[in-house]
Amino acid sequence: MKAMKILVASMLAACSTWAAAQQPIVIKFSHVVANDTPKGLAAEYFKKKAEDYTKGRVKVEVYANSTLYKDKEEMEALQLGAVQMLAPSLAKFGPLGVKEFEMFDLPYIFDNYDQLHKITQGPIGQSILAKLEPKGIRGLGYWDNGFKSFSANTPIKQPSDLKGKKMRIQSSKVLEAQMRALGSLPQVLPFSEVYQALQTGVVDGTENPISNLYTQKMFEVQKHLAMTEHGYLGYAVIVNKKFWDGLPPDVREQLDKAMNESTAFANRIAKHQNDQDLEKVKKSGKTAVYNLTPAEREAFKKALLPVHKEMASRIGPDLLQAVNAELAAPSKKK
Fold first, then answer.
1. Which N-terminal stretch is annotated as signal sequence (predicted)?
2. I need a surface site. Which of 3, 43, 58, 276 has the fewest CB within 10 A?
């Protein structure tokens, strides 16, 4: 009888081990924007590719629109292992102590996507991601959103039009310096609170790629949008390093493949999405869209470029020198 009990117990244990082995590896992927933004669409694309390539061994749960964690909470949640994957905006890493990421916040550092991708898809971008490792974070890639423009309830045609305005920003010393260079009053607010803050007059205006302005309905509470395209907003897709390193090598390889394809997808759709959403903003009739003249754009650049020198010691003069050298070098033919 005792031998029978032992046999049954061992069989039950074996079944339990087998069942556990069949459980999919769950990746909770949290982000703060809407599903129909470039980041939201790319997260869903990654979910599909990851689950397909691993043949169901991995299940990706996407939590959009701050439903799981807000701006200020998500990074700590990742480091503690409460979520496995995030795609925070690049401005989030300065407060974490990796100030090199604030290079991406500098106004007018990139003139176009080609220049941007020379950095994000090259060795400089990879070296910046590697600086996250001591924080328990593994950087998997960069996803574009787009170039930011200023909005407010009064017309914006020249830098002085933003003087004295309370402008919402992400938590970034570079963005603070940018707003002060315009004579504005920078106000740090979580992304999920921006619409209400604009609606109630807590802040007068903000800066966003058009896809964020449209999908978060900020255009409903902003009468004027100036296409300054003065700064870049992108994301770093990151994962808890301990979780990533503990994955079976073949699963990690398939997830890498899914991420590479998702990055190409995200960057392919970003400009298209922003262009589409700009047309929707125009058609709404709620926000007047103003295209700067070349002279007006130069006036904004002249006002904002001194921020590069002001922030050089914080970001790292060697990094800025390397970025400027890379951008000045002729592009290699593919």
1. none
2. 3
Residues 160, 152: Cα–Cα separation, whole Å: 13
Tokens of 152: 């407010």
Determine the pLDDT at residue 333. 52
- What digits encode the pLDDT tens for the residues 28-86? 999 988 888 889 999 999 999 999 999 999 999 999 988 888 877 899 999 999 999 99
**pLDDT digits 0-9 by tens, 264-318:** 999 999 989 999 999 999 999 999 999 999 999 999 999 999 999 999 999 999 9
Mean pLDDT along residues 76-102:
93
The secondary structure of the chain, three-state, reads CHHHHHHHHHHHHHHHHHHHHHCCEEEEEECCCCCCCHHHHHHHHHHHHHHHHCCCCEEEEEECCCCCCCHHHHHHHHHHCCCCEECCEHHHHCCCCCHHHHHHHCCCCCCCHHHHHHHHCCHHHHHHHHCCHHHCEEEEEEEEEEEEEEEECCCCCCHHHHCCCEEEECCCHHHHHHHHHCCCEEEECCHHHHHHHHHHCCCCEEEECHHHHHHCCHHHHCCEEEEEEEEEEEEEEEEEHHHHHCCCHHHHHHHHHHHHHHHHHHHHHHHHHHHHHHHHHHHHCCCEEECCCHHHHHHHHHHHCHHHHHHHHHHCHHHHHHHHHHHHCCCCCC
Instruction: Identify the CA nearest to 207 among candidates 151, 159, 289.
Output: 151
- DSSP for residue 28: E
Where in the chain are the domains? 22-327
Domain 22-327 -> CATH class: alpha beta
Model pTM greater than 0.70? yes
**The predicted structure's pLDDT at residue 155:** 98
What is the rounded CA–CA span in Å between residue 229 and residue 207? 9
Question: What CA–CA distance (Å, rounded) separates 217 from 208?
Answer: 12
**Element spanning 144, H or E:** strand 137-152
Asked if pLDDT for residue 192 goes beyond 90, the answer is: no
